Amino acid sequence: MMITSCCRRALLGVSLGVLATLSALPANADQITFVSQGGAYQKAQTVAILDPSAKKLGITINQDSIPDAWPAIKSQVASGKPTWDVVDVPTGYCLRGGEQGLLEKLDFSKLPNAAAMPEAYRSPYSVAYEFYSSVLAYSQKKFAAGAAPNSWADFWDVKKFPGRRALRNHPIATLEAALMADGVAPDKLYPLDVDRAFKKLEEIKPNITVWWTSGAQSAQLLNDGEVDMVMAWNGRVSALTKEGAKVAFTYNQGILQSTSLCILKDAPNLATAVRFLNEAVDPVHQANLPLLIDYGPANPKAFDTGVIKPERVAQLPSAPENAAKQALMSYAWWSSPAGEAAEKRWIGFMQK
Amino acid sequence: MTMPRAYRIAFVVFCALVLLYLILPILIIAPMSFSAARYLSFPPPSLSLRWYQEYIGNPAWMQATRVTLTVAVLTVVIATPLGVAAAYAISQSKWRIMRLIHMTLLLPLVVPIIITAVGIFFVFAKVGLAATMTGLVLANVMLGLPYVVISVVAGLQSFDATQEMVARSLGMNRLRSFFVVTLPQIKPSVIAGGIFAFISAMDETIVALFISGGQYQPLTKRMFTALRDEIDPTIAAISTLMTAVSFMLVLVAPTRSRKSA
Amino acid sequence: MSSPVQDLSVLHQRREQRLMLALALPALLVILLLVVLPVGWLAWQSVYHNGFTLENYRRIWSEDIYWRSFALTFEISLLVTLLALLLGYPIAYAASVAPKRWGIIILALVVLPFWTSVLVRAYAWLALLQRTGVINQLLLQLGVIDEPLALVHNTFGTVVATLHILLPFMVLPLYATMQQIPRDLMQAGASLGAGPMLTFWRIFLPLSLPGVLAGCTLVFVLTLGFYITPELLGGGRTIMISMLVSRNVELYDQWGAASAVGVVLLVAVGAIFFAVSRFIPLDRVLGQK
Questions:
Q1: How close does chain A come to B133, measured CA to CA in Å?
Q2: Could you tell me which residues are beta bridge partners of residue A136?
Q3: Is there a single domain that holds both residue C189 and residue C237?
Q4: What's residue A16's pLDDT?
Q5: Which residues face A307 on adjacent strands?
Q6: Which residues are B102's β-sheet partners?
Q7: Shortest Cα–Cα distance, A200 to chain B (Å)
Q8: Which of A83, A102, A236, A293 best tests the B interface by mutation, with the highest count of B CBs <10 A?
Q9: What contacts A120, CB < 8 A, 6 or more positions away?
Q10: pLDDT at res. B3
């Protein structure tokens, strides 16, 4: 009796699974699955970009979120039946994915909004979506307004600025910071002198308390007083400030980074995905994003829409005035063989 | 056995400290879940239910809870009969191949979980089972099976097999004699194995990290990604609720089985 | 020269065997498809990439990062095992000699942490151990220290949390073995004039050794494959093998390398279980989980 009912349930489960796969097969032209990184960032996008785009195009946007999309992209494309259409990932993954044949090549004649963006913000496989910055943040309890660290050289100067420090457990942006600390100008970074960067990092390593692995962790460390100084993403720090934490950051020598949108190879809803891609970088949608979260629009035309107030513009990482103080990350270098070699060297550096 | 007094006191103090170490983190989770503050402040500066609201009001958490409960229930429902059947065969048969089968069934406990996880990730990606409910349930059935097998084999060892023989000699067929005579007597070990499989499915994290995705993400995976996204006491609230539910389950299960027996 | 009766019994035995095989088959199939096949695939992938190659293994052999990770993982596993024995033996002993009610309470406290997710416990340890955490605040207030101690984001924090998760796996097999040691044996020792210490050393301890071996094996092997605690509490510096495997899969998409590291780890675990099985049956080791 028990066994038969179990079997029935198991059968039911299996057949439901089969049904689910079958029903997913005929691609519905009017929907796409969009994947981003979750949290407050994805919520902000939903309000500013996704919902308005869905309405305007008359499509349904199914959302998924994952902090590290890269391995999932690889395995989805390898299986030949990806379930995702459009992904929002750090631009480097779009470049790498394009090289490895994991992404659809874009036809920019179908993407007028994207075609109007600066060439540097595009690749044959991707379009920049938003900007953020890796900045130097510090505790105001530890450092008074006039005596706060203001450059990576200050971050490296443990005598003048004693205190506990944290860096990201990842070479991207960290190597750039090390080179700037060593005196390289923000606009002369690439190609990175990897040996010099690691040498400079060795210097600060004994004074790094934590190598953080997630944005949440970097914020928690600063907020709870685990560290006094940290390289963190600007949006994370300003979120703390809004909650009343005594922390601040500087855009000076920040590393300006972006995420991009790209479409998986053999995406189930390719045509709709292309339409969405164009809509997502529409200047007005783009201008709405920074009203909700401290990340900057990738389409520079967003600044001409008048949607973003001047005092708000001044807070954004990609505002021209702030961008001028920062180094622009070269994803092309990071996805070159030299960049990949530098990335692989990281674990060895961490273990020593 | 008597020990000198001083040793005795030192021994008791030592044991008390070790037990404190074991339960200390568990003790702070519930109070932390009622904290009004974000991040890891303990003791909580003031009390609130905001993290419970955050959990219950968030469709993603609710979906993950449904997935976890469904997976756990299906795991028990599938792994228990499979495990009991195998355990019965193992303890009845003196055949040498059965020993090998017994060892094979314990493999999930021997192979480091990260290896199983990565292996399943590769295989599921190939056959299209990644990010599906079926895949998640299959993986958890595999992980839960050894607990059922171990528990039921142990139960059958202390069970006198001649009782079933007697029942059969009285004309009952094998299946019936198993259900009427054997099963009621090994019931506690079947339930124990089932509960272990259930807990294992509720708590499984690493395989889920690799193979689950989309709308079929269990709580543990959501919790892991939530920790990367926002470190706040929501997971303490979830854990407190889960613990309360599991305790009730354990308190209810044995009393009910006793009544029906 | 078989009589009909023997034939019948052989026939019956065959039928019996087939029935038993059929009963075990579904479970066996699940394990074969979900453990043996994936691990086999992993092994295949580690040696085959457009032709047979030992490149992945050569790399493990020659590149420092793998060596260091293996060394660190074995060090931590050894440390956790020794600490678990040191803390777990007295607890198991107390549970087995204390009056029954106390014994049950002790065991209940030992298994209590099982009810809480490993993830949540890691998070609780963070709240306890960080600079502004409970322990540091307490020590500061008591005047034991002037500066908060670095208790987490390092190997120390990893070991504290890992040990916490694995301690029950030491206590339970120890307790099971100690339970079976006949009390009258101890009394006999005492009546022969041996002091309590001597009775413990000469009689109790040797008889509890199978439990020690089972507990140590479990804890050691489980630590070898640990992932969550070093990832969340190691501060980035404590890179254990499992993290190397997952990083090779996730970040660097070196599936062959990840597979090879996995295979080496598996061989190590297999060797340990094989060695241990010469002393006590394997199902005994695992059965007391």
A1: 7
A2: A231, A250
A3: yes
A4: 42
A5: none
A6: none
A7: 28
A8: A83
A9: A328
A10: 63
Residue A24 in tokens: 């997913």
Residue C28 maps to a domain? yes
- Mean pLDDT of successive 10-residue segments in chain C (289 residues)? 66 86 95 95 89 87 88 95 97 92 92 87 91 91 91 93 94 90 79 79 89 92 90 88 84 78 93 88 65
Distance CA C116, CA B241 (A): 10
Whether C94 sits inside 8 A of B243 (CB atoms) is no
Q: Give the integer Cα–Cα distance in Å for A117 and A298.
A: 8
Nearest C-alpha in B relative to C87? B18
Six-digit token string for A215: 């944005």
C-alpha to C-alpha distance for A152 and A179, rounded to whole angstroms: 9
Query: How many separate helices (H) and strands (E) can be counted in chain C?
Result: 15, 0
Q: Do residues C164 and C222 share a domain?
A: yes
Q: Are residues C102 and C237 in the same domain?
A: yes
Taking only residues 32 to 61 of chain B, the set having a beta carbon closer than 8 angstroms to any beta carbon of chain C reads 32, 40-43
Kindly state the DSSP code that residue A265 receives in the 8-state scheme: T
What total of structural domains would you count in chain C?
2
Least confidently predicted of A83-87, A261-265, B172-176, C193-197: C193-197
Question: Residues C204, C101: one domain?
Answer: yes
Which residues of chain A make contact with C131, given a CB cutoff of 8 A? 224-226
Residue C38 shares a structural domain with residue C82: no
Closest partner residue to B231 among A9, A64, A216, by Cβ? A216
Neighbours, chain B (3 or more CB pairs < 8 A): A, C
The gap from C-alpha B59 to its chain's centroid, in whole angstroms, comes to 25
User: What CA–CA distance (Å, rounded) separates B239 from C127?
Assistant: 15
Q: Measured between alpha carbons, how far is residue C279 from residues A166, B160, C179, C210 in Å?
A: 48, 28, 20, 8
- Is the residue at C277 inside a domain? yes
A147-180: per-residue pLDDT in tens? 999 999 999 999 999 999 999 999 999 999 999 9
Q: Are A128 and A91 in contact (CB under 8 A)?
A: yes
Same domain for C169 and C261, yes or no, is yes
Q: Is residue C60 part of a domain?
A: no
Residues C5 and C118 in one domain: no
H or E element that contains C244: helix C241-250
- Any chains having at least 3 CB pairs less than 8 A from chain C are A, B
**Residue C76 and residue C37 share a domain:** no
Does C42 contact B119 at a Cβ distance shorter than 8 Å?
yes
| Whether the complex's predicted ipTM surpasses the cut of 0.95 | no
CB distance A60 to A30 below 8 Å: yes
CATH of the domain at C164: 1.10.3720.10
**Residue C20 is assigned to a structural domain of this protein:** yes
The per-residue DSSP string of B160-200 comes to: -THHHHHHHHTT--HHHHIIIIIHHHHHHHHHHHHHHHHHH
- For residue B181, which of B196, B166, B193 has the smallest C-alpha distance? B166
> What subunits make at least 3 CB pairs under 8 angstroms with A?
B, C
CA distances from C265 to A214, B112, C262 (A): 27, 8, 5
- The parent domain of residue C35 ranges over 1-47
Q: What is the pTM of this model?
A: 0.86
Q: Minimal Cα distance from A63: which residue of B? A: B214
Chain C residues whose C-beta sits inside 8 Å of any chain A C-beta: 63-65, 68-69, 72, 130-132, 150, 153, 231, 235-237, 239, 244, 247, 249-253
For residues A286 and A93, the answer to whether their CB atoms sit within 8 Å is no
pLDDT for C112: 87
Interface of B with A in 120-159 (CB under 8 A): 121, 125-126, 128, 130-134, 137
* Mean pLDDT, residues A312-338 taken together: 93
- List CB contacts (< 8 A) between C45 and chain A: none
Burial class (CB in 10 A: 0-12, 13-18, 19+), C238: buried
